[in-house]
Design goal:
34% helix; Beta-lactamase; alpha+beta; two-stranded antiparallel sheet; 8-stranded antiparallel sheet; single chain; disordered N terminus; globular
């Protein structure tokens, strides 16, 4: 009998050891694969964090936030995150709805201090929902939109050849530094100085999908109008502060340069730091440490926690917007549907990616496995698929 007990104990120990070894080898394989991508794509720096609903379960950082000054990229390195910022507009909109400011079917012209009329659909009504799923008919005019970016060439040294590439792509700062409110009027009102027929798509509102940064920022402006707060202050009050995302915000702090990741064109060519007028759609400055708190909050919210939003709001935010039978023109539902700004991927994850000069990012979570993740990189990646697939695969294995 004693011998049988001893054999049983040994077997149990072997099972535990086997599981531990598997867990370690799984993380090691992920790290090795990420390092291979990091080296292949010649990235300056990258940070990856994976979480469950309560804590960080994996963290890895490679390279440099500042190559010239030999400053390592860490989970506390701050940079803007591109269009991942739009998921914060989603949270803010749902909170605004809870506060009674409007609903998703509200006509934007009942809120704005000017009228928005699509010259290609003059009788059409544009709703807040259409802003969130990119079917409003408001599009990014390529002759105008790049000029909302303002590059500060006096803060830190930069590569003039890399900056010239951006200028040749249309980033020429032809729009003076102005407020979100002023730009929205100038771009969308018929007497605005940047108004043009090319600011609008040809289809009726709700019928055609066209990804629009300006329409996304307009949704944030509606929150400003109804709340009496700037969008930055609204999100600080209802999202950043409750989640203790204390290193996150919308303004660039030139007195905190040592904590910022520099935006790179290549590992040896750096862009100037920049801001942009339509900041809600892509300008949150944060890091993976703070975003890990955000991912945990989204996982908990999906499963019923009401600390940020009521359950009905969360359900609405993550409900598919498009019918598979009759989707709008210009969108394929093979790989994803749309929620309120969030992407609902057919692999079971929910998230959003982001790109800007010297920026690539991806944030997601898997409701089924209760895991999620984020990566930030201080260089634009034309193809993020390799990194995304590695992270999604890891979180699919609960």
């Amino acid at each position: 009998m004693q011998k049988l007990k001893l054999i049983t104990i040994i077997c149990l120990l072997l099972v535990v050891h086997s599981k531990t070894s598997f867990s370690q080898s799984k993380e090691e394989r992920l790290t090795q694969s990420l390092k291979a991508v990091f080296e292949k794509d010649s990235l300056p720096g990258i940070s990856v964090i994976l979480t469950n609903t309560k804590k960080v379960v994996y963290e890895q950082n490679f390279g440099f936030a500042n190559v010239e000054e030999n400053i390592k990229y860490t989970s506390h390195s701050i940079q803007n995150i591109g269009s991942v910022s739009k998921t914060f507009i989603a949270i803010a909109l749902m909170k605004a709805i809870e506060l009674g400011y409007f609903n998703l079917e509200t006509d934007i012209n009942t809120i704005l201090p000017f009228k928005v009329i699509n010259p290609n659909d003059p009788a059409g009504v544009i709703t807040i929902r259409q802003l969130t799923n990119h079917t409003s008919g408001i599009i990014d005019n390529p002759a105008i939109f790049p000029n909302v970016y303002h590059f500060n060439t006096s803060i830190a040294p930069y590569d003039t050849a890399a900056y010239k590439i951006l200028q040749d792509l249309g980033y020429q700062q032809k729009i003076s530094d102005t407020s979100l409110a002023s730009f929205m009027h100038d771009y969308l009102a018929q007497k605005g100085q940047h108004y043009h027929k090319e600011n609008f798509g040809t289809g009726a509102s709700g019928t055609t999908s066209s990804y629009s940064n300006i329409a996304s920022a307009l949704a944030a402006y509606l929150i400003e109008l109804k709340s009496g707060l700037s969008y930055a202050d609204f999100t600080k009050k209802y999202i950043l502060k409750p989640l203790k995302m204390n290193q996150s915000g919308w303004q660039f702090d030139r007195h905190n340069l040592k904590n910022y990741a520099r935006p790179y064109y290549s590992p040896t060519a750096v862009f100037p730091y920049y801001d942009f007028i339509t900041y809600p759609e892509g300008g949150l400055r944060t890091n993976t440490a703070d975003l890990s708190k955000y991912i945990m909050a989204m996982l908990r919210a999906y499963h019923g926690d009401q600390s940020l939003l009521k359950k009905a709001s969360v359900d609405s935010m993550f409900r598919p917007q498009f019918s598979k039978i009759h989707p709008p023109k210009g969108i394929s539902l093979v790989n994803r549907n749309k929620g309120i700004f969030w992407n609902l991927y057919t692999n079971g994850t929910i998230g959003h990616d982001g790109d800007d000069p010297g920026v690539s990012s991806f944030l997601f979570f898997n409701p089924k496995t209760g895991l999620g993740g984020i990566f930030l990189c201080n260089k634009y990646l034309a193809d993020k698929t390799a990194i995304i697939n590695l992270l999604v695969q890891y979180t699919n294995e609960k």
